[in-house]
Each structure stands twice: as C-alpha cells, then as structure tokens.
C-alpha cells in the first residue's frame, strides 16, 4: 500500500498524517459543540487543544518507544520519525488525561463532565485514525487466506492492502475501526438518556473500548509486549475494571442528581471578576437613579401676576 498522500519533492505528506488530522478536526468540532451546552467557551477548548494535542502525541510516541527500546536504543534518531507510525493510543490517553485534569481544575470546569464529552470524540477519532495504520501497513493481524478475506466481502483495495510481506493478514485495523464506529453510535444514543449521570459516558468508553481492544489485540502480531503478555490487553483489562467501578460509583445517588444532561446554571460567582464588577457598577447606577427619582422636590410658590386690589380706607383709596 502506498503510504504517500502527496509528494511535493522536498516534503511528502503521508496518509497517516492526513487521517490523524481528520480525526482531530472531527473530534474537535464535536467537543466544541457539546461543550457550549454546558457553558464551556470555545476559547477554553481551543486553549486546551493547543497543548493537549502535542502532549498526547508525545505521550503516544514515548509509550511506543519505551516498549520497543531494544530497537530504538540502537536507532535513536528514528524516535523523532513519528510520520512512519508508532503511536500508542494508551500513551496518548494517559498523558492526555493528566493534562485535562490539570486544565479543568485551573479553569474550574467539572473534570468528569468534560471527560464525558471527550470520550465521544475519542471513539470517532480512533475509528478514523485506524485507517492511517492501514496505509502504513501496520496494526494488522495474523496470516490468513485470500478466500477468508473475500468471504468478508471487503473492498478489493483493503484485500490488496492486507497482502504484506508475501502473505495475507487479518485486517485488525478495520475490526477496531468498525468497533469504534459502533461504540460511537451507541454512546450518542446513551448520551440522550434522561437520567444519565456525570461519569457514565466515560465509564462506557472504558468498558467498550477496553473490551474491543482486548479481543482484537489477540489477533495482532505487532503488539507491545511486557514479558510474555501483550501490554494492550493488560491495559484493556484495567480499563474494563475501572469502567465498571466508575459506572456503579456514578449511579450511587438518587437518579435525579448529578445528571449529565442538566445544563449548568450560571451563578454570579461563576462570572469573571471584571464582569462581576461591571454588574455591581450597573446595579449601583440603577439604585442611584431610582433614589434620585424618588427624592421629594420643594414646592414652588405660585406666581401671582394680578395687580393688588385698592383698599377703601374711608377717605381715599389706598393701594
């Protein structure tokens, strides 16, 4: 499979980068739209993304390099060649989570609610991003036959792309992409549940993606290893356990409290200090104007323009 999307001579753009970019755009658009429902500004999202994206990419790369250190210790210059693939989603999730916690605490945004928004974008982003692995001829599974792939009714270009190193392979990238698309549809439906609690979308993601990755990873041949165990399967089991516990914990209270779809009520103390001061000044101005209108005015003596009448004193009239 040709991994080059556009060759400009000096610089070439790979399909891997294109699909990562599309995933970021689609996921980011969802996060911005959904965040507005809960009073989270677009500026806050853009400021978050400015550092979150590079940190997550670095985390994904370092995670991958760490579990392939035997190779990269000899080829250190290749550590920087991220365009050739080698990004581990679990590394991105770990570093991204830490940064989101710090950022939301600083901005006084409810962390769990924001994670509930992010995981929906993650599912569609991962579904798109897996196609970058396809064009890079990576994240494929065990050897199989042409007949098996044809029986899956796959497009011919996918079948051709799965012919790697002289043999056909399981399209595990496609399995995970489809799994994430199904999860994306389900989580959008679940998101509309009236009594959905904050944190339960995050727990859904942990269980859904953890279960899918646990099963699909068993078919892959390029897994990151920890001894004799596939690291992705270990992490997936942990994700499932944490997701189940989180779902139970989030639903421990009455079904009418801590609801995801309950929009944030903006309190006066939630406003920035400069806006608070502006509101105070406006209020004082209104009070002063009201007092001025209510102050009693000194009644003026009526102006008498008539001439005084003459007084009869007996002898003569006196004015």
3D structure, described in words:
This protein is mainly alpha-helical and 319 residues long. It is 59% helix and 7% strand. It contains eleven helices and nine strands. It has helices at 15-36, 42-66, 69-72, 89-107, 111-135, 146-151, 156-161, 172-191, 200-217, 231-250, 273-294, and strands at residues 4-7, 12-14, 143-144, 163-164, 167-169, 225-226, 229-230, 311-312, 317-318. The strands form four sheets. The protein has a three-stranded antiparallel β-sheet with strand order 3-5-4. Strands 1-2 form a two-stranded antiparallel sheet. The N and C termini lie far apart (123 Å).
Count every beta strand, where a strand is a DSSP E run of 2 or more residues.
9
Put simply, the count of helices is 11
Which stretches of 5+ consecutive residues score pLDDT under 50?
266-270
Strand order of the largest sheet: 3-5-4
The overall pLDDT, averaged over residues, is 88
Helix percentage: 55-70%
Topology diagram in text:
Blueprint: E1 4-7, E2 12-14, H1 15-36, H2 42-66, H3 69-72, H4 89-107, H5 111-135, E3 143-144, H6 146-151, H7 156-161, E4 163-164, E5 167-169, H8 172-191, H9 200-217, E6 225-226, E7 229-230, H10 231-250, H11 273-294, E8 311-312, E9 317-318
Antiparallel strand pairs: 1-2, 3-5, 4-5, 6-7, 8-9
Helix pairs in contact: 1-2, 1-5, 2-4, 5-8, 5-9, 8-9, 9-10
